[in-house]
Write a structure and sequence with these properties.
Largest interface: A-B, 20 and 24 residues
Number of strands of chain B: 11
Oligomer: heterodimer
Distance between the termini of chain B: 37 Å
Distance between the termini of chain A: 41 Å
Helix content of chain A: under 10%
Largest sheet of chain A: 5 strands, antiparallel
Shape of chain B: globular
Helix content of chain B: under 10%
Largest sheet of chain B: 7 strands, mixed
Strand content of chain A: over 45%
Shape of chain A: globular
Radius of gyration of chain B: 13 Å
Number of strands of chain A: 12
């Protein structure tokens, strides 16, 4: 079945620095790789996603890179801002339709 | 962009009563909707998957008679927590999959407190 691990579990950076979160998954059938940001008391919000036929995708300060051979994909946030502070998730959609979530990464951007 | 509306955003109920949570896709048709539960400082745990017009598929360990799911149309799914107990207190989140582009959009969540 689908399984996903995120590293690190917590990440603290200074404003303006870059942040990188890595996800490793087990199901080779996975073809869709989204990243969600969840602020306290709110539902997850999609910030970027990538499909298996693409190795990298960028949207302003956010980028996602995918290594399908190694079964990992990473979120890169550049020029971090305090409002980037949140919990980030990289759920996996394997052979089934459902998204399975890992434990998340709590990012804190210090002003 | 795709919007999913979830109501209520918070609810307090007494033990033994039932609570209904609604999840609506506002600008797209959702062939599949999902219900998650999230305890404080933990991840989202999938409870069930619902398809319009058919019975929901529950994850292992989730009581289907306690968490009733109805997916009556392509834009509406409801979760009813029956005979609620304090241990059912949690943050419930729905998600809808867009039949057009296959993306997943989440609702804003419902904070349920059972007293």
């Amino acid at each position: 079945g689908e399984n996903v691990e995120q590293h690190p579990s917590t990440l603290s950076v200074q404003e303006g620095d870059s942040a990188v979160i890595k996800c490793t998954y087990s199901d080779s059938a996975s073809n869709y790789f989204p990243w969600y940001k969840q602020e306290l008391g709110k539902g997850p919000q999609l910030i970027i996603d990538i499909r298996s036929n693409v190795g990298e995708k960028k949207d302003q300060r956010i980028a996602v890179t995918l290594n399908k051979t190694a079964k990992h994909f990473s979120l890169h946030i550049t020029e971090t801002q305090p409002e980037d502070s949140a919990v980030y998730f990289c759920p996996i959609q394997g052979g089934s339709e459902k998204l399975v979530f890992g434990k998340g990464t709590k990012l804190t951007v210090n002003p | 962009g795709a919007v999913v509306s979830q109501h209520p955003s918070w609810v307090i109920c007494k033990s033994g009563t039932s609570v209904k949570i609604e999840c609506r896709s506002l600008d797209f048709q959702a062939t599949t909707m999902f219900w998650y539960r999230q305890f404080p400082k933990q991840s989202l745990m999938l409870m069930a998957t619902s398809n319009e017009g058919s019975k929901a598929t529950y994850e292992q360990g989730v009581e289907k008679d306690k968490f009733l799911i109805n997916h009556a149309s392509l834009t509406l799914s409801t979760l009813t927590v029956t005979s609620a107990h304090p241990e059912d207190s949690s943050f419930y989140i729905c998600s809808a999959r867009d039949a057009g582009n296959y993306g997943y959009t989440f609702g804003s969540g419902t904070r349920l407190t059972v007293v």
